[in-house]
Amino acid sequence: MSEQPFWKSKKLSDMSLEEWESLCDSCGKCCLHKLEDEDTGEVCYTNVACRLMDVETCRCTQYQMRTFLVPDCVELLPRNLENLHWLPSTCAYRLLRDGKDLPEWHPLLSGDPQSAVKAGKSVVGKFISEDNVDGDLEDYIVHWPE
């Protein structure tokens, strides 16, 4: 009888930092700028990413310093997951929070760190840095991130 993987046997709040971090599939969607309609609460994604996001890996180039360098950067933590309604439907943190399982393409299941890219779930090649925005963020709303 095989032991269940940690994401099935532990609560998010009980995971080690290494386990928690390994849940990230590097899709990059959480680092895209999002706009929320004040009246409806609807969240719209843009194709504009934080200036710290690496174009090729969709990983933060200054991960340890990100909240200092980008004061409105939201850390994904077990204690604040309930309030992060904007997480994409494919996000492992959201899926596990909601009692669902990881998708078959997730790196923890596939063993391939590039599986989100190969499955078309990553924003690699689909975004621009906020440093290159000309105009209002509303001009950059997209409908592909989910």
From TrEMBL:
<dbReference type="Pfam" id="PF03692">
    <property type="entry name" value="CxxCxxCC"/>
</dbReference>
<dbReference type="InterPro" id="IPR005358">
    <property type="entry name" value="Puta_zinc/iron-chelating_dom"/>
</dbReference>
<dbReference type="InterPro" id="IPR008228">
    <property type="entry name" value="UCP006173"/>
</dbReference>
<comment type="similarity">
    <text>Belongs to the UPF0260 family.</text>
</comment>
<protein>
    <recommendedName>
        <fullName>UPF0260 protein MTBPR1_20368</fullName>
    </recommendedName>
</protein>
